């Protein structure tokens, strides 16, 4: 009877969650969605095996490339531009699936601190109910690119469930090998979704220490225990290595790993507040305006000291259900909320760690009388649902998203830029210019803002002081937005929409960027040399263009497109023999990456055929 009841309640929870999110499916793509999905437009869409492999391998967000997550986007479309509703629908289905896995995982975990099946089922239902409707997960579910987090979490939960289901009995050799093999598959698949699947090791370590240390002492399950302990140590060593070897990344962030670690202690308390007392404000995807706590101030150390004290208190003196809840939350933040050079705050980092918080709440609710428990649970779920509806309403409205997030995040450069783009799209150039001026006054040395000011001046027909901007670019702060800014500048000048500027002006600014210490990384230098090559080609300076592409190639030797561009330009000039040499150079530098190699070979073959046809037509 209780199982049937639990099934009906669980089904009702899924229907409730789907209804809460449904209006959000009509929301737009935003921020990182576009650069991650734009490769669908490359080479005419994903239409054959080479283009399929290339798209799967096109992501550069992490060291592995997240190929399985990229492949999952092909469920929804194989071309770009596309409609977001199908992508968001798939995300919602994965979230609902994860809700079922959270229920199953909680049911298995509850056996270790609750006494009977009835209590276990109620505990799992409460955790699943709080987790699946909580508003903090709206940004993870409706932000298309966060499918990577959703799928990585699916793999982690699957691994934890297999672990708790199979780690029973005496643990013979074959049994241990099968379990490790299954966990290895879950871990590898998860890593191919997103690197956060490495947290599977952390969660396994927590469960092993809390629930199974007795079996190891008794001489059982030794292989599994040793493997989990060893992997956890390797995880910590890896974290330390990332902190110590990411100097350039820390320089770009403007703070050190130790400063970030101290700041995260305070942010963890903020996460807890949002989980226990959810609110509609302060969410969204623009968190770049958050300030770093000053590491030298006494106040910056207080949250870290409190967390340290809580850790000792919980581990030494608390019952097992508190230890599980505390360690599952804290352990789930061990990767993205410690010493990895990432932005300071994102809601999606709580997607799985929140299970720990809701487990604590569920256990406390089970200590209440049935009537009081039901009232409290209905009240909390209703509160969460109301806030979720409000958050979903924001995510479903493109205009509201831009205006509200800019208002809530006044220090976020990207949020303000997003609003300025909205105003430009709606023809409100004067308002956009006012906001651009205000933003530039706050960060006068930020290169991307100055480039956007130039673009705004082009649109309004205002005078542009080239020398003044050259001075700013020579001393200002590095901006990753320079890449997009220079592309837009080249486009509007080519289209004749900025008569105030010429390609010579762009050339002068590119030379300034090349001398700037902030743009000495190979990828940026290759881009800047490529821009110079295009300017010179448009000016009819073929030798200069070829020379600049040589420099671009020297900075980024894995990119065959430089050699192919040289081949095309030379062929257009009738220098077919020279063009052939660059075709050969491109073949020599084909990537060994199996995801990129087929498309590169296809592009080289295509260029060779087209140049051959051009040569035959001229002969």
Task: Explain what the structure shows.
The structure is a single chain. With 619 residues, the chain is an all-alpha fold. It is 70% helix and 0% strand. It contains 30 helices and no strands. α25 runs antiparallel to α26 and α28 (561-572) runs antiparallel to α29.
- Secondary-structure element order, N to C: HHHHHHHHHHHHHHHHHHHHHHHHHHHHHH
User: In angstroms, what is the radius of gyration?
Assistant: 28 Å
Alpha-beta classification: mainly alpha
| Beta-strand residue fraction | under 5%
List the helices and strands and how they pair.
Layout: H1 2-21, H2 33-37, H3 49-56, H4 67-73, H5 84-109, H6 117-133, H7 138-142, H8 147-166, H9 173-193, H10 199-211, H11 213-217, H12 222-244, H13 247-253, H14 257-276, H15 298-317, H16 320-332, H17 354-366, H18 370-395, H19 398-408, H20 413-425, H21 429-442, H22 447-460, H23 466-475, H24 482-494, H25 503-515, H26 522-538, H27 542-555, H28 561-572, H29 576-588, H30 597-618
Helix pairs in contact: 1-5, 1-6, 3-30, 5-6, 5-8, 6-17, 6-18, 8-9, 8-10, 10-12, 10-16, 14-15, 16-17, 19-20, 20-21, 21-22, 22-24, 23-25, 25-26, 26-27, 27-28, 28-29, 28-30, 29-30
């Amino acid at each position: 009877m209780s199982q049937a009841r639990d099934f009906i309640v669980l089904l009702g929870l899924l229907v409730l969650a789907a209804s809460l999110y449904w209006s959000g499916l009509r929301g737009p793509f935003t921020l990182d969605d576009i650069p991650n999905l734009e490769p669908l437009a490359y080479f005419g869409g994903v239409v054959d095996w080479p283009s399929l492999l290339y798209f799967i391998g096109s992501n550069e967000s992490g060291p592995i490339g997240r190929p399985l997550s990229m492949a999952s986007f092909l469920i929804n479309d194989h071309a770009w531009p596309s409609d977001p509703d199908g992508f968001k629908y798939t995300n919602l289905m994965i979230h609902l699936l994860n809700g079922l896995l959270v229920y199953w995982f909680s049911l298995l975990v509850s056996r270790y601190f609750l006494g009977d099946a009835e209590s276990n089922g109620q505990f799992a239902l409460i955790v699943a109910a709080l987790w699946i409707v909580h508003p903090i997960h709206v940004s993870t579910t409706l932000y298309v690119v966060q499918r990577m987090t959703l799928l990585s979490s699916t793999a982690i939960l699957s691994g934890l469930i297999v672990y708790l289901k199979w780690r029973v009995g005496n643990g013979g050799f074959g049994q241990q090998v099968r379990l490790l093999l299954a966990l290895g598959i879950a871990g590898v698949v998860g890593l191919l979704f997103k690197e956060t699947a490495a947290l599977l090791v952390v969660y396994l370590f927590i469960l092993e220490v809390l629930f199974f240390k007795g079996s190891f002492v008794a001489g059982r399950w030794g292989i599994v225990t040793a493997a989990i302990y060893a992997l956890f140590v390797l995880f910590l060593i890896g974290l330390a290595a990332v902190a110590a070897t990411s100097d350039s990344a820390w320089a770009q962030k403007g703070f050190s790993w130790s400063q970030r670690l101290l700041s995260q202690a305070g942010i963890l308390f903020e996460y807890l507040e949002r989980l226990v007392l959810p609110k509609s404000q302060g969410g969204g995807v623009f968190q770049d305006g958050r300030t770093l706590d000053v590491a030298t101030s006494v106040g910056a150390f207080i949250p870290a000291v409190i967390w340290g004290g809580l850790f000792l208190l919980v581990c030494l003196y608390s019952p097992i259900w508190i230890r599980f809840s505390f360690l599952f939350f804290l352990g789930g933040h061990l990767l993205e909320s410690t010493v990895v050079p990432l932005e300071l705050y994102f809601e999606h980092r709580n997607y799985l760690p929140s299970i720990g918080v809701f487990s604590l709440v569920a256990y406390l609710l089970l200590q209440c009388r049935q009537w009081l428990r039901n009232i409290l649970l209905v009240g909390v779920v209703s509160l969460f649902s109301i806030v979720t509806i409000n958050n979903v309403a924001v995510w479903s409205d493109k205009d509201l998203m831009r205006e509200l997030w800019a208002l809530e995040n006044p220090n976020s450069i990207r949020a303000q830029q997003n609003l300025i783009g909205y105003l430009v799209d709606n023809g409100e150039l004067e308002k956009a210019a006012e906001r651009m001026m205000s933003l530039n006054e706050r960060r006068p040395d930020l290169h991307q803002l100055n480039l956007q000011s130039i673009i705004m001046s082009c649109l309004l027909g205002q005078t542009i002081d080239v020398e003044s901007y050259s001075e700013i670019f020579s001393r200002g702060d590095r901006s990753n937005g320079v890449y997009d800014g220079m592309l837009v500048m080249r486009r509007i000048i080519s289209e004749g929409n900025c008569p105030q500027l010429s390609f010579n002006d762009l050339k002068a600014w590119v030379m300034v960027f090349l001398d700037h210490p902030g743009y000495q990384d190979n990828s940026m230098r290759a881009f800047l040399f490529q821009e110079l090559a295009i300017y010179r080609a448009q000016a009819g300076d073929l030798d200069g263009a070829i020379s600049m592409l040589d420099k671009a190639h020297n900075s980024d030797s894995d990119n065959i497109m430089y050699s192919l561009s040289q081949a095309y330009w030379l062929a257009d000039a009738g220098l077919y023999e020279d063009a052939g040499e660059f075709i050969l150079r491109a073949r020599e530098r084909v990537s060994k990456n199996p995801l990129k190699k087929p498309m590169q070979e296809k592009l080289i073959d295509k260029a060779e055929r087209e140049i051959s046809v051009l040569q035959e037509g001229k002969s």
